[in-house]
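Can anyone check this?
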Amino acid sequence: TLYLLVGILSLFLGCIGAFLPLLPSFPFLLLSATCFAKSSKRLHHWLVETDMYKNTVLPLKKDKKMKFKNKLIIMISVTLLMSIGFVMMHEVLIGQIILLMVWLFHMFYFLFKMKTIRS
């Protein structure tokens, strides 16, 4: 029962993370798959057959690759959300520096480290 509850919660957070770039969906969907596998074979099978799992988690889990469109959406979303935080921290220089460093790390990772699936 505990695995089932944690699996449902992590699935919920993973679904939210698919739309909010600051909340990653991949770890939550992976946790959900693990919990569902331990709690119910039927739930595990259902999760790994969903389009969200197949499009998001499977390519990352299998080949450490992501579609260019998904990478672009993530980079634009992260840039927009972090720029809002950057502007709101106009009086907190250290906060702006930390946000800038996190943004640079995201851009570097998605541009140079994350492989792209060629269509």
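Reply from J.R.: I decoded it. Strands lie at 65-67, 115-117.
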